[in-house]
Design a protein that fits this description.
Layout lengths: L3 E3 L3 E4 L3 H9 L5 E2 L14 H17 L6 E11 L2 E3 L5 H11 L3 E12 L7 E13 L4 H8 L21 E6 L1 H5 L3 H10 L3 E3 L4
Parallel strand pairs: 2-3, 2-4
Antiparallel strand pairs: 1-9, 4-5, 4-6, 6-7, 7-8
Helix pairs in contact: 3-4
Length: 204
């Protein structure tokens, strides 16, 4: 049974099956649009600022082909002592990221940019962000190598998926778990409900 109802056409500017699953599980109708090329952080850029900028670039790209829709772009980064970890290039890069995170705590930041069309009055761009502090335990190198060589790390910020096999890496996590998966869900829903772009589904 749907939990929420979209009051306008929704477009998710993301090919991530995890983000799409969040919307589908809540019963929110949406379409998926391309988000353009991945952008890279600028030298010294704050991780949260970069995540927000990347989310907005994705949303604006998708909005060009859906001017009457509410367009949502999202981006997730892992940050260790201010260094931004995006998606790994290959298994070797994934192992490097995992080794850096091993037996340490790091931050996961997911940002959303919501582009509201003029038809929803007023047209505007809204941001929201979710954060979590995640700690790995002291994982044996052989286990890190095996995981890095699996298919799972390929499209994940920081080279791991807390909702998948990568759950074994995590000793503890504090904050928004949905942000670690890839979408600051509570923060986004608050924005959409407050702006009356979304409503709780009526009882049947």
């Amino acid at each position: 049974m749907p939990i929420f109802t979209a009051l306008h056409p929704f477009v998710l500017a993301s090919s991530s099956p995890r983000r799409q699953r969040f919307f589908a599980d809540l019963g929110i109708e949406f379409t998926v649009a391309g988000s353009g090329e991945e952008c890279l952080p600028e030298t010294g850029e704050n991780p949260a600022a970069f995540a927000g900028r990347a989310a907005l670039i994705k949303a604006r790209f998708a909005a060009c082909s859906a001017p009457e829709a509410v367009v949502i772009g999202a981006d997730t980064v892992v940050s260790l002592d201010g260094e931004i970890f995006g998606k790994p290039r290959d298994a070797t890069h994934a192992l490097h990221m995992l080794s850096c995170l091993n037996n340490r705590a790091h931050d996961v930041i997911s940002a959303c940019a919501v582009i509201v069309p003029a038809s929803a009055r007023p047209a505007e761009e809204i941001f929201c962000i979710g954060r979590a502090r995640v700690a790995f335990w002291d994982i044996p190198l052989a286990a890190l190598e095996a995981y890095a060589n699996s298919e799972e790390p390929a499209d994940k910020a920081g080279a791991y998926a807390i909702q998948g096999q990568g759950a074994f890496l995590v000793r503890e996590a504090h904050g928004s778990i949905s942000a670690v998966v890839g979408l600051p869900l509570a923060e986004l829903l608050e924005v959409l409900l407050r702006r009356r772009l979304l409503a709780a589904a009526p009882e049947r």
